[in-house]
Amino acid sequence: MVAYVGRFAPSPTGVLHAGSLVAALASWLDARAAGGRWLVRIEDVDTPRCSPQAGETLLRQLADLGLQADEAPLWQSQHTAAYQQALDALVRSGLAYPCACSRADIAAAHAAAGRIPTRHHPLPYPGTCRIGLQGRAPRAWRFACEKYWSKWQLTQCGKARIASFSIANNLLTWIDRRLGMQTQNVPTEVGDFVLQRADGLWAYQLAVVVDDAAQGITHVVRGEDLADNTPRQMLLQAALGLPTPRYLHTPLVRGADGEKLSKQHGAPPLDTSAPLNALQRAAETLDLPPVPTQTRVADALAHWVMAWRALYNPTP
């Protein structure tokens, strides 16, 4: 049996806030409840927006809260050669192609076809460069999602991974440990998504898949806002011959306006000088029972590990 390995993977564009602590605590509890290992990965692949100082601050905040990782953190910015190897493998198998489209080009293609995007439902890539660059210079690399999707359904190659996900009736179906059954038609809802950006930086979808495999991650616990990314990552895992972790997506902390609390929406930095207070609020979001105000942090965490095990029964 494969041992449990979980992870928390923050982006160092700022420090921890109440929303990111929920994901950190949930992933730590899941690992501890399963008797597994918990890793931290600093997702600083978007180097213009990230800073080493913010990454070090995140690590100190986690330590203040008693959330200790079981090995040294992986920094994505030091792992870029692995992303290039993955892209090269997809290119060799015909599952990645260069794209010359700018955002304006994509918007113009949709407008010409009478398609109008909405705030929460962006339009999929229209496939302009799928048949070639037509003399234009390449800007980015995309995953040939539609091609792989068709191949999957034609050859029934998903049977070996039926425990992780399946594709039938043009829907990819997978089971989230908290949200239950989830479905998505990736070609029509997302399209051929970016693997490497026009500025040369690696896209989140490719980096997270490569890193989860490199770290031996068996269980991913993260915020609910990332649930719709999961089908894309599952397709990439299958295309690269990588294992698919089990997923659990946690509830979000929302601001007064109902929007997800995030650094972009002005979430205040987390005060870790009173760690139990911060942890107590995160535990409440996760529907975990409160502890007395004088409880030691270690005892509170042990209490929540038992409660988490009763809720989700994580196993390797």
Could you characterize the architecture of this molecule?
- It is built from ten helices and eleven strands.
- The protein is of the alpha/beta class.
- It has a domain at 5-78 and 204-313: HUPs (Rossmann fold).
- The relative contact order is 0.18.
How would you concisely characterize the structure shown here?
By secondary structure, this protein is of the alpha/beta class. 36% of the residues lie in helices and 15% in strands.
By CATH, the topology of the domain at 5-78 and 204-313 is: Rossmann fold
Major sheet size, sense and barrel closure = 3 strands, parallel
Low-confidence runs: none
State the share of residues found in helices, binned by percent: 25-40%
Order of helices and strands: EHEHEHEHEHEEEHEHEHEHH
Radius of gyration: 20 Å
How much strand? 15-25%
**Widest sheet: strand ordering:** 1-2-3
Total beta-strand segments: 11
Structural class: alpha/beta
Please state the average pLDDT score: 90
Shape: globular
CATH architecture of the domain at 5-78 and 204-313: 3-Layer(aba) Sandwich
Q: Cα distance, first to last residue?
A: 7 Å
CATH superfamily of the domain at 5-78 and 204-313: HUPs
EC number: 6.1.1.-
GO biological process, one term: glutamyl-tRNA aminoacylation
Enzyme class: ligase
Organism: Simplicispira hankyongi
